[in-house]
Amino acid sequence: MADEVLSRFEEVGLINDSAFADAWVESRHHGRGLARRALARELRTKGVDSALIDEAVAQLDSEQEEATARELVARKLRSTRGLDRDKRLRRLAGMLARKGYPEGMALRVVRQALEGEDTEGLEDEGY
């Protein structure tokens, strides 16, 4: 009986794991800044099929993911001012890692942001 009901729901479009996965990726990436790895992990815990997960996270390309990482770092950069550079690097890279960003990308994005901030500081001082 339950299988019949679920089959009927799928037929009329009330149950659509693919649409759910696509909407989840869109929402969580733009809303929380989560990377592909974290999104895939969340969808797995929700019981979505691996093939559907792969399709859904494929919506995000590396450039999009890196742009989001840059935005996240830019938002958090100010709150780390006053800390030494290594501590800032660890905190910001750790924040990206918790959101599922690859280590290499996280470190590169944070280093570039810190270097950009250092350059701005020199320009402000007239160098």
UniProtKB/TrEMBL annotation:
It comes from the Bacteria. Residues 16-56 form the RecX second three-helical domain. Residues 65-109 form the RecX third three-helical domain. InterPro entries: RecX_HTH_2nd, RecX_HTH_3rd, Regulatory_RecX, WH-like_DNA-bd_sf. The keyword Cytoplasm applies. It is found in: Cytoplasm. This is Regulatory protein RecX. The gene is recX.
